[in-house]
Amino acid sequence: MKSEKTIENLSVPPYQPENYLNAEYGVKSWLLTTDHKRIGLLYMVSITLMFILGGFFAMLIRLELLTPQGDLVSADTYNKLFTMHGVIMIFFFLIPSIPAVLGNFLVPLMIGAKDLAFPKLNLLSWYIYLAGASFTLWALVSGGVDTGWTFYTPFSTTASNTEVIKTAIGIIIMGFSSILTGLNFIVTIHKLRCPGMAWFRLPLFIWAIYATSLIQVLATPVLTLALALVGIERAFGIGIFDPALGGDPILFQHLFWFYSHPAVYIMILPGMGVVTELICAFSRQRIVGYTGVAIATLAIAFFGFLVWGHHMFVAGEAVYAAMAFSFLSFAVAVPSAVKVFYWTATLYRGAISFDAPLLFAIGFIGLFTVGGLTGLFLAALGLDVHVHDTYFVVAHFHYIMVGGSMLAYFGGLHYWFPKITGKMYPEGWARLAALTIFGGFNLTFFPQFILGYLGMPRRYYSYPENFQALNVLSTAGASILAAGLLMPFIYFLWSWRYGKTAGANPWNAKGLEWTTNSPPPKENFLVTPVVTEEAYNYETDDEQLELFDEEDE
Amino acid sequence: MPNIQFRDLAQQQETAEFGMWIFLATELLLFGGLFTSYTAFRYYFPQVFAEASHGLNAVIGTINTAILIVSSLFIALAVYAVKNGQRKKLLFTLSAAIVLGTAFMVLKGYEYYNHYLHHEFPGLSFDYSVANAHTKQIYFFLYFAMTGLHAIHLTIGIFLVAFILFRAYHREFSPSYYSPVENVGLYWHFVDIVWIFLYPLLYLIDIHH
Amino acid sequence: MIFIFTNLLYFLPPLFPEAASTEAGGVDSLFYFMLAVCGSVAALIFILLAFFAVRYRRKEGNLVAKSYKMPKWVEITWMVVPFFIFLGMFYWGASLYFSVLRPPDKALEINVIAKQWMWKFQHEGGQREINELHVPVNQPIKITVASQDVIHSFFVPAFRLHFDVVPGRYRTTWFQPTKIGEYQLECSQYCGTNHSQMRGTIIVMSQGDYENWLKLGADNSIASKGQNLFRQTGCNACHTGDSAARAPMLENIYGQTVNLENGENVKVDDNYIRESILNPQAKIVAGYKPIMPTFQGQFDEDQLLELVAYIKSLSAGREQIPPNFSPDAPQPSPVGDAIKKSEESNE
Q1: Beta carbons of B131 and C281 less than 8 Å apart
Q2: Percentage of chain A with pLDDT > 70?
Q3: In sequence order, what are the residues at sequence separation of 6 or more whose Cβ sits closer than 8 angstroms to the Cβ of residue C179?
Q4: H, E, C per residue of B141-183
Q5: Which of the other chains make 3 or more beta carbon contacts under 8 angstroms with chain C?
Q6: What is the distance between the alpha carbons of residues C59 and C50, in angstroms, rounded to a whole number?
Q7: d(CA A15, CA A146)
Q8: Residue B194: which pLDDT band, with cuts at 50, 70 and 90?
Q9: What's the pLDDT at A219?
Q10: Considering only CB atoms, which chain B residues are within 8 Å of A124?
Q11: Cβ separation of A219 and B29 shorter than 8 Å?
């Protein structure tokens, strides 16, 4: 906010060395770019549009639930609204959010590479994403879909008469984009690290992206197959999932959750990576237990593949299978809990500066803790029998996905905004936005835990009257949340144009991305960097800083 | 010259090959979903599956298996040839693989056509008057889905090998640059291995009867 | 957040649902236990976060972090201790789950048929209800659920019971109401347009009231309806009860294990009987030819359950027909008629 004083900044445009933004101009230079940084920005624009659309649907859902009767929209419209909200937010916003935007921008920068291993493939994956999104939007305008984002059979194959096939094709196409992005990251992280960048010197964000990419590559094809089978069954009447024709509806749930549970980790692991970076940068402290966090990241990805059955505790899986899945679900909570402990311990004896990114990060830890702990309630078999498919579940996964992933995404956007644009965002507004989002979020989703335990099932268009008070609170919270989310859109756009120019390293942070210019040149680094120290090595710098301090005194 | 993001050509080749392995991991899981469905339904309906498998032509299946194994041998020889700079041998082995791959597809097409004639083609022509028609339909659907997905992969493989052959004809490869040959080879072997699993699961369930 | 929470307590309806079954107490105890444990962990983390944030904020005199090394024992502790706590929660949860899925031996049996968007119930005595279920208090009630179309879920919050109704198979669970009253039944698995309207009421009555209610609505028992259906469909042409017949004897078969043609064994339960009607050639009993035609599409779920009830009644140790009420002389039954009427209008 101090920038107003330097009026000369406004009249004379500061000298900007050539960077990836001004190296080339014109629409073609963007649409045909193979520069990972530009592709990251292309993703950012497209997922932002999808996010606004998904958020709009969410607001309509909350407005409808303001009253117990169905009065705003019809029941069918409501069913389409929550389906499209889920499909868009999960497949077209959260899954590509941190990996495709921040990952694309940062992975080569953080490991000291000039680009990803397969730049053309990277551009292709953005076009595939666009194709998938267009297909889904086409399904939306030609009538929408009402199966829920879970596409449970036999409802999706026999009962629903909406655009199931089109939506499924849209998601299948998006899946290829997700696979190609993951493949690109895995290969890049393996093969393109700069000299001296050993595995255990990688920033933990890279570990998180690596684990995420493994899940994307290994789990997504199963979703492709499951949705393809739904489409074929609808089109040709083959009864793979239809019990009337000899099929098994539960088989679909197995195939679907084999992807969709790990998909939760596709959404949360990158968020954890971002938060690790933010905590270290703003407490000026090396992460406590680097190896522990790295291994916990991989452990979450691994165990994440073995817990899909906890979505079927009351759907009729074998009792002993349910026990195994319950046990493994508790097991996956251990590395998640351990990460929270490491983050908290990293603040201890730090030198903490409350810039907006850190507010988002601390918000993340709080909300992720609540989301993770309520996950335990759902993993406990006997308790899940009561809260399964209620608003308790809705609240739980919003705490993880919105409170977790989305807050981390916004925190990351703020933290790397100077690197991406070369400008600073307005700090005061950003702090206000962080607090508004945090408050609005809790008001929206905390009442839903209570609603769930009281017994309000999810996907209810109208509900018994005694649930109204809590629903009103939730809707009120949603409007605050929406206002909080609008702020960054406005001030980011504003400061991209008018913001104070940022130096190469405005946070005085460690990490290779901060050693190059802001915005970085097209090849990222003018000289290939050589790494000689561990990640987050704040001590060496700060020891020198301390010496200066003492001299001053 | 290597692309800008690589140190040297060797790193670029290594990277490309590693990318292909990761891609094959994805493919494995794609087929894995179908294998899982197959396992589930065979467990539910062992008798119907055994009976329905008699509708397949095990002789053609066996010939096709042999064809694919030999084609894989040629592909392996092609990689060996390009590493040693033997251009003629490379051109011959690649052509042989294309011919064998095409032969496989022709035989497969003949099988599909026969299923169509015998009303064993779910979605297009299926006889619902037989006993357990719906369960039988699931068997044949899985048969078409699995062999069909495999056939799509093999067709792509044939085009890829043809493209490699074209580039080899124009002397684009040398003992120091041959990663496209090696990558297409990896892909071909993968498609071959999938068939090695499909063949006993679909054709040989009940062969002793 | 805590402020909002405590304020809510004053003007809201109860924050916890009524507990009206034997299972509810167990589920609630586990819930309170987990709430206490998880709540303390969350509180500890929030307090530490807040404390560190204030104590170690960057200011004059604390411009640089004082780095430290976490002792190994601390790291090991925070991995091992949560693991054992989780193990305890897992064990508790699993034991509750077992009791939910294992009905006691002596239980009142009720069939539940779910369809878009209503609940239908069949009592042993043949009484039928729609969206209303009358049950006696303090008696275990075993429900067998079946779905006519898509997946539904039988959810009674007051009983802490939640059970998916999957088409194509029978599943059983049980509950034992402990309080007289009316409780909400909800469908909690999304099932289409009127999913949220697919609600019903479970009416828990005293033993005496229940007996009276049963008399009002009595019709034929389900098993005798099944017997009629068995004759009408001509099942008895082959299943003659003669060991030399073309089809296996159905007497005393329920609960037994039979040998199949392919050498495997199968236990005769509700699901096997159902499969043998709809898809007879999937599992053929050893010594018989696969000649039975499929009855897929000929019976709806109500009729299937009646046939299953009849075949079950042929086995020793179970209540035998004939029923108390003769099918030839139906007694006037105002409630039964009303139900039939409402059923017709609903369908």
Answers
A1: yes
A2: 95
A3: C18, C20, C137, C204
A4: HHHHHHHHHHHHHHHHHHHHHHHHHHHHHCCCCECCECHHHHH
A5: A, B
A6: 16
A7: 54
A8: very high
A9: 94
A10: none
A11: yes
The tens digit of pLDDT for each residue in A456-491 reads: 999 999 998 888 999 999 999 999 999 999 999 999
The CA radius of gyration of chain C, in Å to the nearest whole number, is 27
Q: Which residues of A touch C168 (CB under 8 A)?
A: 243-244, 247-249
CB contact under 8 A, B132 and C282: yes
Angstroms from A543 CA to nearest CA on chain C = 8
Is residue A347 within 8 Å of A353, Cβ to Cβ?
no
Contacts of B141 in chain A (CB under 8 A): 232, 238, 240
CA-based R_g, chain A, Å: 24
A69 neighbourhood in chain C, CB within 8 Å = none
CB contact set of A501 (below 8 Å; sequence gap of 6+):
A9, A14, A422, A423, A424
Name the phi and psi angles at C178, rounded to 5: -115, -10
Within an 8 Å CB–CB cutoff, is residue A212 touching chain B?
no
Q: Which two tokens stand for residue A131?
A: 């194709």
* pLDDT score of C9 more than 70: no
ipTM value greater than 0.85: yes
* pLDDT score of C13: 60
Sign (positive/negative) of CA torsion A350, A352, A357, A359?
Answer: positive
CA proximity to A274, closest of A525, A38, A101, A523: A101
B63 to chain A nearest CA, in Å? Answer: 29
Cα–Cα distance for residue pair B49/B41, rounded to 1 Å:
8
Residue type, C63: L
Average per-residue pLDDT for chain A: 91
Output the pLDDT for position C265.
83
Structure tokens that stand for B196 in this block: 């090695």
Of A151, A330, A346, the C-alpha closest to A249 is A151
Percentage of chain B beyond pLDDT 90 is 68
Asked whether the predicted pLDDT for residue C339 surpasses 50, the reply is no
Q: What mean pLDDT do residues B25-47 have?
A: 91
Q: B16 is written with which tokens?
A: 């490309």
Q: Give the type of residue at A207.
A: W
Helix A407-421 and helix A356-379, axial crossing angle in degrees, nearest 10? 150
β-bridge partners, A329: none
Tokens representing residue B9 in the block: 């050509």
Contact A455 C184 (CB under 8 A): yes
Q: Judged by CB atoms within 8 Å, which residues 283-312 of C form the interface with B?
A: 283-284, 290, 294, 296
Q: What's chain C's length in residues?
A: 347
Q: Do A225 and B14 touch (CB under 8 A)?
A: no
